Amino acid sequence: MGDSSARAPTVLIVDDLPLNVMLLSHFLEAEGFRTTSASSATEALAASRQHQPDIILLDVVLPDQSGFELCSRLKSDSRTADIPVVFLSALDDSVSKVRGLETGGVGFISKPVHPEDVLAAVRLHLHLAEKNRAIARQLA
After folding, report:
1. DSSP state, 92?
2. Please, which pLDDT band fits residue 6 given cuts at 50, 70 and 90?
3. Per-residue pLDDT for 97 more than 50?
4. Which of 72, 47, 31, 54 is nearest to 127 (CA)?
5. Residue of 16, 18, 99 lying closest to 63 (CA atoms)
6. Most C-beta atoms within 10 A of its C-beta, which of 22, 27, 49, 98?
7. Cα(138)–Cα(132) distance, rounded to whole angstroms?
8. CB-based contacts of 16: which residues, under 8 Å, 6+ apart?
9. How many CA atoms lie within 13 A of 93 on its CB side?
10. CA distance 87 to 58
């Protein structure tokens, strides 16, 4: 994935439950990722614009706006449109999964999350994002 030793990828964790944020941060940081967090859609939008995370783990149910609505807003903003969004949710039905993809998400992980699933998704989507940037540079 290029020069990963110079700067570890940053994962923005968006969840209104502090325990979920703590658990996700703990195992992601143990694997060498940097993490930052937000507990609402409003905070997440500001953090995404300011910090430009490499990937966002986004809970569907937030206190001020749904994760689906937030994802649509992120994808319509040129500053955040290229950041991969993986949904995390206890909503495990097909309608929710499809809606997540339709709003611009790249994946959907059901809660309770398993560290291996999250790590695999994060690594995969960071790799794909890097490949997309490389192709865009070649076409420019």
Report:
1. -
2. low
3. yes
4. 54
5. 16
6. 27
7. 10
8. 39, 40, 59, 61, 62, 63
9. 4
10. 5
Closest Cα partner for 109 from 74, 67, 75, 69?
67
Domain range list for the chain: 10-139
pLDDT of 78 higher than 50:
yes
What does the DSSP 8-state code read for residue 85? E
DSSP readout, 18-38?
HHHHHHHHHHHHHTT-EEEEE
- What are the residues facing 88 on neighbouring strands? 59, 109
Mean pLDDT of 91-117: 90
Q: Distance between the two ends of the chain, CA-based, in angstroms?
A: 20
